[in-house]
Protein backbone atom coordinates (compact mmCIF):
# COMPACT_ATOMS: atom_id res chain seq x y z
CA UNK A 1 0.00 0.00 0.00
CA UNK A 2 0.95 3.62 -0.40
CA UNK A 3 -0.01 4.99 2.99
CA UNK A 4 -0.48 8.66 3.78
CA UNK A 5 0.27 9.24 7.46
CA UNK A 6 -0.80 12.69 8.63
CA UNK A 7 0.92 14.15 11.69
CA UNK A 8 3.78 11.67 11.37
CA UNK A 9 6.25 14.02 13.06
CA UNK A 10 4.29 14.09 16.31
CA UNK A 11 4.48 11.69 19.24
CA UNK A 12 2.25 8.82 18.11
CA UNK A 13 2.64 9.52 14.38
CA UNK A 14 6.43 9.19 14.52
CA UNK A 15 6.19 5.97 16.51
CA UNK A 16 3.69 4.73 13.90
CA UNK A 17 5.97 5.61 10.96
CA UNK A 18 8.83 3.75 12.65
CA UNK A 19 6.49 0.81 13.30
CA UNK A 20 5.42 0.65 9.62
CA UNK A 21 9.00 0.86 8.36
CA UNK A 22 9.95 -2.20 10.40
CA UNK A 23 6.69 -4.19 10.37
CA UNK A 24 5.50 -3.72 6.76
CA UNK A 25 6.76 -3.22 3.22
CA UNK A 26 4.40 -0.32 2.57
CA UNK A 27 5.41 3.05 1.17
CA UNK A 28 4.81 5.87 3.62
CA UNK A 29 4.20 9.54 2.92
CA UNK A 30 4.26 11.68 6.03
CA UNK A 31 2.27 14.91 5.66
CA UNK A 32 2.98 17.18 8.61
CA UNK A 33 2.83 20.94 9.06
CA UNK A 34 5.50 20.90 11.76
CA UNK A 35 3.57 22.94 14.26
CA UNK A 36 5.24 23.37 17.66
CA UNK A 37 4.38 19.68 18.30
CA UNK A 38 5.93 18.34 15.11
CA UNK A 39 9.57 17.37 15.46
CA UNK A 40 11.45 15.73 12.61
CA UNK A 41 14.13 14.59 15.02
CA UNK A 42 11.55 12.03 16.13
CA UNK A 43 12.14 10.42 12.74
CA UNK A 44 15.92 10.76 12.56
CA UNK A 45 17.26 7.90 10.44
CA UNK A 46 13.95 7.28 8.64
CA UNK A 47 14.83 9.82 5.93
CA UNK A 48 17.31 7.35 4.45
CA UNK A 49 14.66 4.70 3.85
CA UNK A 50 13.50 4.79 0.19
CA UNK A 51 10.00 3.76 1.33
CA UNK A 52 9.61 6.95 3.38
CA UNK A 53 8.82 10.46 2.09
CA UNK A 54 8.19 13.63 4.04
CA UNK A 55 5.97 16.45 2.83
CA UNK A 56 5.72 19.57 4.92
CA UNK A 57 2.21 20.93 4.64
CA UNK A 58 -1.15 21.67 6.15
CA UNK A 59 -4.05 19.22 6.01
CA UNK A 60 -6.22 22.32 5.56
CA UNK A 61 -4.48 23.07 2.24
CA UNK A 62 -6.89 21.37 -0.14
CA UNK A 63 -4.74 21.78 -3.26
CA UNK A 64 -1.73 20.29 -1.51
CA UNK A 65 -3.72 17.39 -0.09
CA UNK A 66 -5.12 16.66 -3.56
CA UNK A 67 -1.64 16.76 -5.07
CA UNK A 68 -0.25 14.41 -2.42
CA UNK A 69 -3.10 11.92 -2.94
CA UNK A 70 -2.53 11.92 -6.70
CA UNK A 71 1.27 12.20 -6.94
CA UNK A 72 1.89 9.36 -4.51
CA UNK A 73 -1.12 7.26 -5.60
CA UNK A 74 -2.26 7.01 -2.00
CA UNK A 75 -4.36 3.93 -1.27
CA UNK A 76 -4.74 4.32 2.51
CA UNK A 77 -4.76 7.20 4.99
CA UNK A 78 -3.94 7.05 8.70
CA UNK A 79 -4.95 10.38 10.16
CA UNK A 80 -3.08 11.47 13.29
CA UNK A 81 -2.57 15.19 12.54
CA UNK A 82 -4.31 17.30 15.15
CA UNK A 83 -3.98 19.94 17.76
CA UNK A 84 -3.75 17.49 20.65
CA UNK A 85 -3.24 19.29 23.96
CA UNK A 86 -6.31 19.90 26.13
CA UNK A 87 -4.76 22.84 28.06
CA UNK A 88 -4.01 24.68 24.82
CA UNK A 89 -7.61 24.16 23.70
CA UNK A 90 -8.75 25.91 26.88
CA UNK A 91 -6.48 28.85 26.04
CA UNK A 92 -7.63 29.06 22.40
CA UNK A 93 -10.12 26.69 20.75
CA UNK A 94 -9.90 28.19 17.24
CA UNK A 95 -6.88 26.26 16.00
CA UNK A 96 -8.52 23.07 17.26
CA UNK A 97 -11.64 23.63 15.18
CA UNK A 98 -9.57 24.64 12.16
CA UNK A 99 -7.19 21.66 12.15
CA UNK A 100 -9.21 18.94 13.81
CA UNK A 101 -12.57 19.65 12.19
CA UNK A 102 -11.91 21.54 8.95
CA UNK A 103 -8.66 19.70 8.26
CA UNK A 104 -10.33 16.32 8.72
CA UNK A 105 -13.18 17.31 6.41
CA UNK A 106 -10.72 18.31 3.68
CA UNK A 107 -8.77 15.07 4.06
CA UNK A 108 -11.97 13.04 3.88
CA UNK A 109 -13.18 14.80 0.76
CA UNK A 110 -9.86 14.53 -1.03
CA UNK A 111 -9.36 10.91 0.00
CA UNK A 112 -12.80 10.07 -1.29
CA UNK A 113 -12.11 11.88 -4.54
CA UNK A 114 -8.86 9.93 -4.90
CA UNK A 115 -10.75 6.66 -4.21
CA UNK A 116 -8.64 5.82 -1.20
CA UNK A 117 -9.47 2.29 -0.03
CA UNK A 118 -8.99 2.62 3.75
CA UNK A 119 -9.14 5.74 5.93
CA UNK A 120 -8.27 5.34 9.63
CA UNK A 121 -9.39 8.21 11.83
CA UNK A 122 -7.32 8.30 15.02
CA UNK A 123 -9.92 9.63 17.43
CA UNK A 124 -9.69 9.57 21.22
CA UNK A 125 -11.49 8.28 24.32
CA UNK A 126 -11.99 11.93 25.32
CA UNK A 127 -14.97 12.10 22.94
CA UNK A 128 -16.94 10.07 25.55
CA UNK A 129 -16.48 12.66 28.29
CA UNK A 130 -15.93 11.71 31.92
CA UNK A 131 -16.73 8.57 33.95
CA UNK A 132 -17.77 8.21 37.57
CA UNK A 133 -16.04 5.75 39.91
CA UNK A 134 -17.21 2.66 38.02
CA UNK A 135 -17.58 1.38 34.48
CA UNK A 136 -15.68 1.85 31.23
CA UNK A 137 -16.32 3.44 27.84
CA UNK A 138 -17.59 1.07 25.17
CA UNK A 139 -18.00 1.92 21.49
CA UNK A 140 -21.71 2.61 22.13
CA UNK A 141 -21.19 5.03 25.03
CA UNK A 142 -22.80 8.34 23.94
CA UNK A 143 -20.33 11.04 22.93
CA UNK A 144 -20.20 13.84 25.50
CA UNK A 145 -16.95 15.77 25.02
CA UNK A 146 -16.06 18.33 27.68
CA UNK A 147 -13.05 20.29 26.44
CA UNK A 148 -12.76 22.23 23.18
CA UNK A 149 -10.10 19.67 22.16
CA UNK A 150 -12.45 16.76 22.82
CA UNK A 151 -15.35 18.52 21.08
CA UNK A 152 -13.23 19.11 17.98
CA UNK A 153 -12.17 15.46 17.93
CA UNK A 154 -15.80 14.37 18.37
CA UNK A 155 -16.80 16.54 15.40
CA UNK A 156 -14.07 14.96 13.27
CA UNK A 157 -15.02 11.48 14.48
CA UNK A 158 -18.68 12.10 13.53
CA UNK A 159 -17.73 13.51 10.13
CA UNK A 160 -15.96 10.23 9.48
CA UNK A 161 -19.09 8.32 10.48
CA UNK A 162 -21.13 10.53 8.15
CA UNK A 163 -18.77 9.92 5.22
CA UNK A 164 -19.26 6.21 5.70
CA UNK A 165 -23.03 6.39 6.11
CA UNK A 166 -23.62 8.94 3.34
CA UNK A 167 -21.04 7.99 0.74
CA UNK A 168 -20.04 4.47 1.69
CA UNK A 169 -16.50 5.78 2.14
CA UNK A 170 -14.37 3.13 3.91
CA UNK A 171 -13.60 4.92 7.18
CA UNK A 172 -12.43 3.13 10.33
CA UNK A 173 -12.40 4.96 13.67
CA UNK A 174 -10.15 4.23 16.65
CA UNK A 175 -10.64 5.74 20.11
CA UNK A 176 -7.62 5.23 22.31
CA UNK A 177 -6.80 6.13 25.89
CA UNK A 178 -3.71 8.01 27.11
CA UNK A 179 -0.45 6.98 25.46
CA UNK A 180 3.02 7.09 26.97
CA UNK A 181 6.44 6.27 25.58
CA UNK A 182 9.31 7.84 23.63
CA UNK A 183 9.08 11.14 21.70
CA UNK A 184 6.11 12.57 23.61
CA UNK A 185 6.12 16.35 23.67
CA UNK A 186 7.00 17.50 27.20
CA UNK A 187 3.83 19.48 27.77
CA UNK A 188 1.99 16.21 28.44
CA UNK A 189 1.93 14.79 31.97
CA UNK A 190 4.60 12.08 31.89
CA UNK A 191 7.41 13.75 29.91
CA UNK A 192 6.68 17.08 31.63
CA UNK A 193 7.09 15.51 35.06
CA UNK A 194 10.27 13.69 34.03
CA UNK A 195 11.80 16.83 32.50
CA UNK A 196 10.92 18.99 35.52
CA UNK A 197 12.09 16.38 38.03
CA UNK A 198 15.44 16.08 36.26
CA UNK A 199 15.91 19.82 36.82
CA UNK A 200 14.52 19.68 40.38
CA UNK A 201 11.67 21.95 39.35
CA UNK A 202 8.16 21.82 40.85
CA UNK A 203 5.86 19.09 39.52
CA UNK A 204 2.47 20.75 38.95
CA UNK A 205 -0.39 18.36 39.79
CA UNK A 206 -3.80 19.72 38.82
CA UNK A 207 -6.54 19.89 41.47
CA UNK A 208 -6.45 17.07 44.03
CA UNK A 209 -4.45 14.73 41.76
CA UNK A 210 -7.19 12.08 41.98
CA UNK A 211 -8.16 12.20 38.29
CA UNK A 212 -7.73 8.83 36.63
CA UNK A 213 -6.29 8.06 33.20
CA UNK A 214 -5.99 4.66 31.47
CA UNK A 215 -2.39 4.39 30.22
CA UNK A 216 -1.22 2.46 27.17
CA UNK A 217 2.28 2.17 25.75
CA UNK A 218 2.48 3.89 22.37
CA UNK A 219 3.86 0.76 20.67
CA UNK A 220 0.69 -1.14 21.61
CA UNK A 221 -1.41 1.71 20.21
CA UNK A 222 0.57 1.63 16.95
CA UNK A 223 0.02 -2.12 16.58
CA UNK A 224 -3.69 -1.63 17.17
CA UNK A 225 -3.99 1.12 14.55
CA UNK A 226 -2.06 -1.03 12.07
CA UNK A 227 -4.41 -3.95 12.74
CA UNK A 228 -7.50 -1.78 12.26
CA UNK A 229 -5.99 -0.43 9.03
CA UNK A 230 -5.53 -3.92 7.61
CA UNK A 231 -8.30 -5.99 9.19
CA UNK A 232 -10.94 -3.65 10.61
CA UNK A 233 -14.44 -3.46 9.18
CA UNK A 234 -15.20 -0.14 7.42
CA UNK A 235 -17.70 2.00 9.30
CA UNK A 236 -16.78 0.43 12.64
CA UNK A 237 -15.37 2.07 15.76
CA UNK A 238 -12.64 0.34 17.81
CA UNK A 239 -11.78 1.32 21.38
CA UNK A 240 -8.12 0.84 22.32
CA UNK A 241 -6.88 0.87 25.91
CA UNK A 242 -4.56 -0.71 28.38
CA UNK A 243 -6.84 -1.67 31.31
CA UNK A 244 -4.37 0.31 33.24
CA UNK A 245 -5.99 2.98 35.35
CA UNK A 246 -3.78 5.24 37.45
CA UNK A 247 -4.53 8.27 39.58
CA UNK A 248 -2.40 11.22 38.46
CA UNK A 249 -0.86 11.68 41.92
CA UNK A 250 0.10 8.00 42.16
CA UNK A 251 1.67 8.17 38.71
CA UNK A 252 3.67 11.27 39.52
CA UNK A 253 4.87 9.74 42.80
CA UNK A 254 5.94 6.62 40.92
CA UNK A 255 7.93 8.74 38.45
CA UNK A 256 9.60 10.71 41.22
CA UNK A 257 10.57 7.51 43.01
CA UNK A 258 11.85 5.92 39.81
CA UNK A 259 14.03 9.00 39.20
CA UNK A 260 15.30 8.98 42.77
CA UNK A 261 13.96 12.50 43.38
CA UNK A 262 12.15 13.99 46.36
CA UNK A 263 8.35 13.85 46.55
CA UNK A 264 8.57 17.40 47.93
CA UNK A 265 8.83 18.55 44.32
CA UNK A 266 5.13 17.69 43.88
CA UNK A 267 3.09 20.89 43.92
CA UNK A 268 -0.69 21.08 43.78
CA UNK A 269 -1.86 23.80 41.37
CA UNK A 270 -5.35 25.07 40.38
CA UNK A 271 -7.32 22.52 38.41
CA UNK A 272 -7.75 22.43 34.63
CA UNK A 273 -11.18 23.94 33.80
CA UNK A 274 -13.67 21.21 32.90
CA UNK A 275 -11.12 18.56 33.94
CA UNK A 276 -12.48 15.07 33.16
CA UNK A 277 -12.38 12.98 36.32
CA UNK A 278 -11.86 9.49 35.03
CA UNK A 279 -11.27 7.63 31.75
CA UNK A 280 -11.34 3.85 31.36
CA UNK A 281 -11.57 1.92 28.12
CA UNK A 282 -13.33 -1.35 27.43
CA UNK A 283 -11.19 -2.74 24.60
CA UNK A 284 -13.16 -6.01 24.37
CA UNK A 285 -14.27 -5.44 20.77
CA UNK A 286 -10.83 -5.07 19.20
CA UNK A 287 -9.63 -7.96 21.31
CA UNK A 288 -12.51 -10.30 20.27
CA UNK A 289 -12.80 -9.25 16.65
CA UNK A 290 -9.21 -8.50 15.65
CA UNK A 291 -7.22 -10.38 18.30
CA UNK A 292 -5.39 -7.30 19.65
CA UNK A 293 -4.03 -7.26 23.18
CA UNK A 294 -1.55 -4.92 24.85
CA UNK A 295 1.84 -6.54 25.21
CA UNK A 296 3.75 -3.98 27.29
CA UNK A 297 3.05 -4.16 31.03
CA UNK A 298 2.79 -0.85 32.81
CA UNK A 299 5.79 -1.63 35.03
CA UNK A 300 8.06 -2.54 32.10
CA UNK A 301 6.71 0.25 29.89
CA UNK A 302 7.22 2.93 32.53
CA UNK A 303 10.72 1.72 33.36
CA UNK A 304 11.63 1.77 29.65
CA UNK A 305 10.05 5.18 29.18
CA UNK A 306 11.90 6.75 32.12
CA UNK A 307 15.12 5.20 30.81
CA UNK A 308 14.42 6.53 27.31
CA UNK A 309 14.04 10.11 28.57
CA UNK A 310 17.14 9.73 30.75
CA UNK A 311 19.09 8.46 27.73
CA UNK A 312 17.69 11.22 25.49
CA UNK A 313 18.17 14.30 27.63
CA UNK A 314 19.60 16.04 24.57
CA UNK A 315 16.23 15.45 22.81
CA UNK A 316 14.43 16.91 25.84
CA UNK A 317 16.77 19.91 25.88
CA UNK A 318 16.29 20.51 22.13
CA UNK A 319 12.52 20.51 22.56
CA UNK A 320 12.48 22.61 25.73
CA UNK A 321 14.81 25.21 24.19
CA UNK A 322 13.03 25.24 20.80
CA UNK A 323 16.21 24.18 18.97
CA UNK A 324 14.44 21.15 17.47
CA UNK A 325 12.96 23.55 14.93
CA UNK A 326 16.39 23.93 13.33
CA UNK A 327 16.41 20.25 12.32
CA UNK A 328 14.02 20.88 9.44
CA UNK A 329 16.33 23.45 7.87
CA UNK A 330 19.38 21.24 8.37
CA UNK A 331 17.72 18.28 6.66
CA UNK A 332 15.26 19.81 4.23
CA UNK A 333 16.41 23.41 3.74
CA UNK A 334 18.54 24.69 0.84
CA UNK A 335 21.60 22.47 0.62
CA UNK A 336 20.21 20.14 3.29
CA UNK A 337 20.63 16.40 3.09
CA UNK A 338 17.04 15.92 1.96
CA UNK A 339 16.27 19.14 0.12
CA UNK A 340 12.75 18.50 -1.24
CA UNK A 341 11.64 18.54 -4.82
CA UNK A 342 9.97 21.72 -6.03
CA UNK A 343 6.63 22.39 -4.27
CA UNK A 344 6.81 19.24 -2.25
CA UNK A 345 7.56 20.66 1.13
P1 LIG B 1 1.10 15.49 18.76
O1 LIG B 1 0.59 16.83 19.17
O2 LIG B 1 2.34 14.95 19.38
O3 LIG B 1 1.33 15.47 17.17
C1 LIG B 1 0.45 16.09 16.28
C2 LIG B 1 1.16 16.21 14.93
O4 LIG B 1 0.23 16.78 13.98
C3 LIG B 1 2.39 17.13 14.96
O5 LIG B 1 3.46 16.53 14.29
C4 LIG B 1 1.91 18.39 14.23
O6 LIG B 1 2.96 19.07 13.55
C5 LIG B 1 0.90 17.79 13.25
N1 LIG B 1 -0.10 18.79 12.80
C6 LIG B 1 -0.82 19.62 13.60
N2 LIG B 1 -1.62 20.40 12.82
C7 LIG B 1 -1.41 20.01 11.53
C8 LIG B 1 -1.94 20.44 10.29
N3 LIG B 1 -2.86 21.43 10.21
N4 LIG B 1 -1.51 19.84 9.16
C9 LIG B 1 -0.57 18.85 9.21
N5 LIG B 1 -0.02 18.43 10.37
C10 LIG B 1 -0.43 19.00 11.51
O7 LIG B 1 -0.12 14.49 18.97
P2 LIG B 1 -0.13 12.96 19.46
O8 LIG B 1 -0.16 12.93 20.93
O9 LIG B 1 0.90 12.23 18.70
O10 LIG B 1 -1.58 12.54 18.93
C11 LIG B 1 -1.75 12.11 17.58
C12 LIG B 1 -3.22 11.83 17.33
O11 LIG B 1 -3.67 10.82 18.22
C13 LIG B 1 -4.13 13.03 17.56
O12 LIG B 1 -5.13 13.01 16.57
C14 LIG B 1 -4.74 12.79 18.93
O13 LIG B 1 -6.01 13.37 19.02
C15 LIG B 1 -4.81 11.27 18.94
N6 LIG B 1 -4.73 10.63 20.27
C16 LIG B 1 -3.69 10.92 21.11
C17 LIG B 1 -3.59 10.26 22.33
C18 LIG B 1 -2.45 10.55 23.28
O14 LIG B 1 -2.44 10.02 24.40
N7 LIG B 1 -1.45 11.33 22.91
C19 LIG B 1 -4.55 9.30 22.69
C20 LIG B 1 -5.60 9.03 21.80
C21 LIG B 1 -5.67 9.70 20.59
O1 LIG C 1 -7.19 10.19 26.63
C1 LIG C 1 -6.56 10.47 25.42
C2 LIG C 1 -6.00 11.88 25.44
O2 LIG C 1 -4.88 11.85 26.34
C3 LIG C 1 -5.59 12.38 24.07
O3 LIG C 1 -6.73 12.48 23.26
C4 LIG C 1 -4.89 13.74 24.18
O4 LIG C 1 -4.41 14.15 22.90
C5 LIG C 1 -3.73 13.61 25.14
O5 LIG C 1 -3.11 14.87 25.31
C6 LIG C 1 -4.19 13.07 26.49
O6 LIG C 1 -5.04 14.03 27.16
P1 LIG C 1 -4.94 14.30 28.74
O7 LIG C 1 -5.53 15.63 29.02
O8 LIG C 1 -5.46 13.14 29.50
O9 LIG C 1 -3.32 14.30 28.89
P2 LIG C 1 -2.34 15.26 29.73
O10 LIG C 1 -0.98 14.62 29.64
O11 LIG C 1 -2.47 16.67 29.32
O12 LIG C 1 -2.88 15.11 31.20
C7 LIG C 1 -2.98 13.84 31.84
C8 LIG C 1 -3.59 14.07 33.21
O13 LIG C 1 -2.64 14.76 34.02
C9 LIG C 1 -4.83 14.93 33.19
O14 LIG C 1 -5.72 14.47 34.21
C10 LIG C 1 -4.32 16.32 33.57
C11 LIG C 1 -3.15 16.02 34.48
N1 LIG C 1 -2.03 16.98 34.44
C12 LIG C 1 -1.50 17.29 33.23
C13 LIG C 1 -0.43 18.16 33.13
C14 LIG C 1 0.15 18.54 31.78
C15 LIG C 1 -1.49 17.48 35.62
O15 LIG C 1 -1.97 17.18 36.71
N2 LIG C 1 -0.44 18.34 35.53
C16 LIG C 1 0.12 18.72 34.33
O16 LIG C 1 1.07 19.53 34.32
CATH fold category name of the domain at 2-179 and 218-243 and 279-295 and 326-332: Rossmann fold
Ions, cofactors and other bound molecules: nicotinamide-adenine-dinucleotide, 2'deoxy-thymidine-5'-diphospho-alpha-D-glucose
Residue share in β-strands: 15-25%
Q: Distance between the terminal alpha carbons, to the nearest Å?
A: 22 Å
**What's the mean pLDDT score?**
95
Radius of gyration: 19 Å
- Major β-sheet strand ordering: 3-2-1-4-5-6-10
The percent range for helix content is 40-55%
**Class from secondary-structure proportions:** alpha/beta
Instruction: Quickly count the helices.
Output: 12
Q: Spell out the CATH superfamily of the domain at 2-179 and 218-243 and 279-295 and 326-332.
A: NAD(P)-binding Rossmann-like Domain
Low-confidence stretches: 341-345
Q: What would you call the quaternary organization? A: single chain
Q: What's the total number of strands? A: 12
CATH architecture field of the domain at 2-179 and 218-243 and 279-295 and 326-332: 3-Layer(aba) Sandwich
What's the CATH class of the domain at 2-179 and 218-243 and 279-295 and 326-332, please?
A: Alpha Beta
**Shape type:** globular
Element order, helices and strands? EHEEHEHHEHEEHEEHEEHEHHHH
Task: Give a structural overview.
The longest helix is centred in the first third of the chain and has 20 residues, at 94-113. Strand 1, helix 1 (11-23) and strand 2 form a beta-alpha-beta unit. Helix 4 packs parallel to helix 5 (148-167). This protein has twelve helices and twelve strands. With 345 residues, it is of the alpha/beta class. It has a domain at 2-179 and 218-243 and 279-295 and 326-332: 3-Layer(aba) Sandwich (Rossmann fold). Bound molecules: nicotinamide-adenine-dinucleotide (NAD) and 2'deoxy-thymidine-5'-diphospho-alpha-D-glucose. Residues 6-7, 9-13, 32-35, 37-38, 58-60, 80-84, 99, 103, 122, 124, 153, 176, 178-179, 185 line the site of nicotinamide-adenine-dinucleotide.
